[in-house]
């Protein structure tokens, strides 16, 4: 039974890794080999010079775009973890008259399609002069109603005994949150942080509208420029896609232990 389990996991791992291999493989071969009728799983030759061609392409500032995406993703992730955790803790633990009303309004925002708020948000950002500016890319995504909802549900199940012990020591809500709740919720914070980072990194439509000059492009906008009405630069597109997912892989590998712990702390049974 154990051998069959490992065999099934190995087959699943291979199936998940094959698309990543194909992306890297197509990025390191010539255009003709990608579109050849006699396509082979293993390339006949590897063109390492494709890296120099990709990063030297003046039409696509890939490095600058990746830096922009990294800045936006990190700031939005930190902002969501800070603001949404405070909102979730306040809704879960601080009693006041309209707590449920505020919570229902937060949940109601989840039912509004993003397309409905897209134009009003753009008008506000444009009025503030944040078009082609990192502020226009970062600030609208600093708060998420869904993340606040998840934090509230998590804090509702947080052990009250720990908070009561902190109150006996003279801590208020603010001190209890930072000194007791946050240190004991690092796994959950890490799990939501990874989700927020990946979501921010993969955003395309909003950066496409806001980042109207090359200096403010994010990596997803930069990738789209390889596809034009006149031509498709296939091998550079594949190689750029492979390069662009590298930060996501690093985040997953670095946070894997905390992700498992975060899932365990949510009480989800697999």
UniProtKB/TrEMBL annotation:
It comes from the Bacteria. Its main location: membrane. This is Carbohydrate ABC transporter permease. The keyword Cell membrane applies. Keywords: Cell membrane, Membrane, Transmembrane, Transmembrane helix, Transport. It comes from Lentzea kristufekii. It is found in: Cell membrane. Residues 66-256 form the ABC transmembrane type-1 domain. Belongs to the binding-protein-dependent transport system permease family. The chain crosses the membrane at residues 70-89, 101-125, 137-155, 237-255. It is a multi-pass membrane protein. Gene3D superfamilies: MetI-like. The keyword Translocase does not apply.
